[in-house]
Amino acid sequence: MGTLYLVRHGQASFGAADYDQLSELGRRQSLRLGRYWAERGLGLDAVITGSLRRHQQTWAGIAEGAGLALQPLVMPGLNEYDADAVIRCVHPQPLPRPDTPEQYRQHFRLLRDGLTQWMAGTVSPQGMPSYDGFARGVAEALTHVRGAHHGKNVLIVSSGGPIATAVGQVLGLSPEASIELNLRIRNSAVTELQFTPKRHSLLTYNTLPHLDGAEYRDWVTYA
């Protein structure tokens, strides 16, 4: 039996012109996770990432912190949906960059509404696959892990949407339940699945053992 570690990227640049890069805190979260695993002697046999920069940068931080030199397999099916495109489907007017609590709440209300409609097939966000296509990319990554890495420790670095979708597929959840998982997952959080050649089983979800200390209280982020 193998173990699959699904890690959401570190804090990205939410509200900036280019979201797809880690903030300085996001880099520190990634380094800390790598160091935590190294302190506990966790070895990794394989690494898979999406193709987004924040995925690559998060893996680079983990690898540096853990002293690892593995070359990741890049699977674009692990890329996140385009949140801006999802929101535009239900709110075509431009939104200001969120910098107040109410603007953040509005952003995530619209995102939840857009995701619900995208999953139901009632909207088609520009430049994005259908939800079935998105979910298929995640399923293909899980199938690859089961087929190629039996009995190994495997790391996937991805985003909240693919990770929540993977957990939803393992548990047989509705798309609506997967949305709730997605919107609660934290930056650099670890989700663990055990796997055999036939199936995955959930062990933990959305944990931050590497930030379990008073000195890391301000390192816990969601966006």
Could you describe the 3D structure shown?
By secondary structure, the protein is α/β, with parallel strands linked by helices. The protein folds into two domains: about 170 residues, Phosphoglycerate mutase-like (Rossmann fold); about 45 residues, no CATH class. It has seven helices and six strands; from the N terminus they run βαβαβαααβααββ. The protein has a six-stranded mixed beta sheet with strand order 3-2-4-1-5-6. It starts with a strand and ends in a 16-residue tail after the last strand.
The count of domains is 2
Strand % is: 5-15%
Low-pLDDT segments, ≥5 res: none
Q: What is the strand tally?
A: 6
Short description:
InterPro entries: His_Pase_superF_clade-1, His_PPase_superfam, PGM_Phosphatase. GO terms for molecular function: phosphatase activity. The protein has 223 residues and is of the alpha/beta class.
List keywords for this structure.
single chain, 223 residues, alpha/beta, Rossmann fold, 2 domains, 6 strands, His_Pase_superF_clade-1, PGM_Phosphatase
